[in-house]
Amino acid sequence: MEKDDARKQTREVLHERRKQVIRMHRKGMPVMQIVEHSGLSWYAVNTAIKQYSTAGLSGLKPAVRGKKQGSGRMLSEAQEATVRQTICDKRPEQLKIEFALWNRAAVMQLIERECGVKLSVRGVGNYLGRWGFTPQKPIK
C-alpha cells in the first residue's frame, strides 16, 4: 500500500487516523500490520502509540502548524498604533518629511525616525496593507 504524506492532510483527518491506529493497537494488532492497514509510516504509528500512552487521547491531537500569528514583526503594537495615528492625523510636510503625500518611502522614514527601526520598502508595504491603507491615485 502506498504511504500517504501526513503533512498534506488536514488536522481533523490526521486526528482520525491516529485514533484508528490506537483502536487497532488496543485490539492487539502488531505495529507492522497497523502500518499496512492504515497507510501511515512505521514512525507515525509508533509516535501515535507513544503519545497515547503518555497523554491519552488529548496527546493525539495534532498541533497547529506554521508560524504564530504576528511573529517576525519588527514594530511593537504600541509603535504600530503610534505610526497609524500619525499617518491619519498629519501630512508628511508637517513632520518635516520631504514628501507631499504618504507613500511607502515616507512611512519608512517616519518609522525610522519615530521608532528607530529600519524597514525595507516591502516591509512597510506589508504593514500598510495590514493596517488597511490602500494605494490611492492623487488628484491632479
Layout of helices and strands:
Blueprint: H1 11-26, H2 31-38, H3 42-55, H4 77-89, H5 104-115, H6 121-131
Report what the structure shows.
- The chain has about 140 residues and is an all-alpha fold.
- It folds into two domains: about 5-60; about 75-130, no CATH class.
- The protein has helices at about 10-25, 30-40, 40-55, 75-90, 105-115, 120-130.
- Helix 1 crosses helix 3 (about 40-55) and helix 5 packs across helix 6 (about 120-130).
- The chain is rod-shaped.
- It starts with 10 loop residues before the first helix and ends in a 9-residue tail after the last helix.
In short:
The chain is mainly alpha-helical.
Uncertain segments are none
Number of helices: 6
Q: What order do the helices and strands follow? A: HHHHHH
State the helical fraction.
40-55%
C-alpha termini separation: 67 Å
Give the overall silhouette.
Answer: rod-shaped
Entry keywords:
single chain, 140 residues, mainly alpha, 2 domains, 53% helix, 0% strand
